[in-house]
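Changelog note: in this version the structure field was regenerated for every chain. One regenerated record is shown below for reference.
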Amino acid sequence: MRPPILWITIAFGAGVLAALEGYAASGALYAGLPVLLGAALLRRRAPVGAAAGIALVAGAVWGSAALRERAVTCAGAWTRAGGDHTRAAIVRLHDPVAAAGGIVEGDAQGRSCGGSLKLRWPEGHAARGGTTWLVAGRWLGDDADRGILVARRTRLLDGTPRGRGALRDRIAARSARLFGSRAPLVDALVIARTADLDPEVRERYARSGLAHILSISGLHVGFIAAWLGLGPRARFGAATLLIAAYCWLLGMPAPATRAAVMLALNGVARLRQRVVAPRGFIAVAALVVLGLDPWAVRSVGAWLSVSAVAAVIWAARATERSPRVVRLVAPALAATLVTAPICAYTFGTVAPVGVLANLIAIPLGAVAVPGVIVALLSSSGLLAAGAGLCLALLDLVAAGGAALPGGHAVMTAGWPAAALWLGVLVVAWWLWHTPRRPWLIAARVAFIGAGLSCTALFSAFSRLSDCRCLTVHFLDVGQGDAVALRTPGGRWVLVDGGPRSEGRDAGRRVVLPFLRRAGALRLAAVVATHAHADHVGGLPAVLAALPVDLVLEPGEPLGEAPYLEFLAASEASGARWRAARTGDRLDLDGVHFSVLSPDSAWAAETTDPNEESVVLLVEYGQVRLLLDGDAGLPVESRLAGRVGDVDVLKVGHHGSRSATSDAWLSEAKPEIAVISVGARNTYGHPAPEVVARLVAHGVQVHRTDREGTITLESDGRFVRIH
């Protein structure tokens, strides 16, 4: 039987989510009057239903209050005001910042607005955590959660570290002294400070299914609780207070708070000698978390935390009488399967290898995390050396898991990916509930194994003809552009990132999963051809996930939100930035990238962002490709006589009638033309007359709206398309 608190928590969470999504943001109480009236009438016949109805209305009211509170924060007010204005705030920093600058969070201290802020700290202004600064800069972003204040001017107001930031500053300083190059990993494990963590380390842990170890979760609180001990009455109060203090130090993240509440409830139940249903524990913990932070209902970390714990509890109870090996593997396997649809929908990545990797990593973490904390508290170099050995072993497990073939699955994030893994979960449930007859179990396993084998063989045969040469992928991102190029040496260049609109981010759902699936761990360059949303909208997700060496773009400011977010992501990534100009050249593994347009004079006189597009000529051996963004007839006329023959033409402006003239085709003489266009667009792209011109010039035309992602391969002499 499910405890009533479970339904109450679900109803409260649904009310909070409805309010935060805008369905009950205004008039929540009035809209809930019929529900309250129904609850009053049914309180005797259906008390649980009545309580759930009241909880639903209470959640809507609580969510509406959270929205109003967010609106008066600095981030909320600046996002609502919009515009390209200088913003200023008095901020107390959460963490120290090195002289090289970087990303840091802080609390606004002024009377006009408050709340938490994410800042891009400028170079040359080292700062200690807990110090107070007057910061002025540009607010970038159209969402209070994702916005960032790019600080241009800073002035120290109070150099004495205070509050939580002061303690985090001391921990970071001691970590750097005791652990040296491993200090960023230590900071991530102990205080959830990941600003200095190498993106390659994050990617390694994600691919091995160990990302939860780098982001503070209930696991870390469990490690500490296990060492403190919550058993005897004398230690229970002190241990609970210490865990609560640790959650405060972290900033009360939802997963850690959930774990702390569950541990406290478990301790109280033991002291009172009561047996409480595990689902009741989870429900009360989730209710407390939503009470403290209503925005946790939109946090992926919170959803993963609750679902993983529920899966672990179910697996532990379901395998009580099973052999020891089954009891050991079942919780990790259940947690991986239950959280897989959420990971697939949000990130497009699921790491089955984590089932095995966690069997080694979690015991190591149970020693490493408390060992690191004791080393930091005692400032002992000897203990730090021992903990450092555990960290090295932990990193070795992550590297091994990430390198294991087939250990992680990458796909396009969204509902199709989630549905696939939901199907895997259903199959696993079907297998588990198979009647315990050996022949029936063997038959079902053989059936699934045959299906997997056929899939693996098909994938293997399809890769036999892979070309180790220049590979160009015109990604199907809908109405937009995204071109991924892989050099013969395995280095990647991304030209544009596709569109981002309400509910659809091509960078997160298409470009990034494609790059991960192709094994791209780093980008040699990102080229944003121009500032329009259908080209730069998806780039922030890519810049946040993968290390990038160089960012090239026209450098002509445009006050639109997608472009400003792209600039913020470029700042945050730490990549070198350069305004692309005629004559710029990049050479990678024998592939030459040359900028043909814009030049400084043209960029200064034109006012149309399309005509400011970076026109890129890619040459490998005898093969030449021309990528011209949304450049139109004016740019084509200006470049007349300077391009020459090309083998492949990326048709300008998605096949608009404002580009791809007869003169342009007569000069370029392309053999292949690719049109990147959405299947449903209101622009009439590609224009029939443009397609007719291409056909008249004998050009082989390919379109992403009809063929999906289009891939070209070249050995420097010939081009093959598939």
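Spot check on this record: Residues 47-71 form the longest helix (25 residues). The first strand starts at residue 86 and ends at 93.
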